[in-house]
Specification:
- This protein is an alpha+beta fold.
- Helices cover 16% and strands 38% of the residues.
- Strands 1, 4, 5, 6, 9, 10 and 11 form a 7-stranded mixed β-sheet that branches. A 5-stranded mixed β-sheet has the order 7-8-3-2-12.
């Protein structure tokens, strides 16, 4: 049952996330929401725009990989995910943990195989008004997750990874890059032909 809706983007200059390793800690920081950005058609066929003040966040907001709730990367309630609003949008910071999901997310961002950011919440928690440009301006939305995704639905979000402490050999890097490329291609095939959305079982 599709009772959720998600929005995202893929342009580095606006909505972006960066991966940084410092003192043994790996973090992903960037923008999950850019004010004024217009989405590609969502699951309901509409295009949406979010302005500052249109989104509220609950106490438990999760950071996910491709909107997959089975292996969350971080959550606000334990401090591993932080959200802050500024004039540009909603900035996020994910402190990745030493798990397969955390390590893989960091490596995929770092290798630039995955660059998009997204956010979502219950469809019932959204109110929107149609504008003259056939774009729906969201006046109220309750978000409960942000996601790293290979195929975002807005044209202003992206994900970039940079590491200051990578010490693996060139051969290992190339092997890992090929493996991550295959995994990224599989993710793109899974998303092909679908509007960006999240279905929470």
């Amino acid at each position: 049952m599709n009772d959720r809706i998600t929005f995202s983007a893929d342009t580095i200059d606006q909505q972006s996330v960066e991966a940084v390793e410092s003192d043994g800690k790996r973090t992903l920081t960037g923008y999950a929401v850019v004010w004024g950005a217009v989405s590609k058609p969502a699951a309901d066929g509409r295009r949406y725009r979010f302005d500052k003040g249109s989104i509220t966040w609950g106490d438990d907001v999760y950071a996910l990989w491709h909107h997959d709730w089975s292996a969350p990367l971080a959550v606000t309630s334990n401090g591993s995910l932080t959200l802050s609003e500024d004039e540009k949008g909603v900035r996020i910071q994910i402190n990745t943990d030493d798990t397969t999901a955390g390590r893989d997310a960091y490596e995929r961002v770092k290798s630039r195989l995955v660059r998009g950011m997204s956010f979502g919440g219950p469809r019932s928690a959204m109110k929107a008004e149609k504008t003259d440009q056939n774009i729906w301006r969201v006046v109220a939305f309750s978000g409960d997750e942000v996601s790293i995704t290979a195929i975002p639905s807005m044209s202003e979000t992206s994900i970039v990874a940079n590491s200051d402490a990578e010490k693996s050999s060139q051969g290992e890097k190339e092997t890992r890059a090929k493996q991550l490329k295959r995994e990224s291609d599989k993710l793109k095939l899974l998303h092909f032909g679908q509007s960006i959305r999240s279905v929470r079982a």
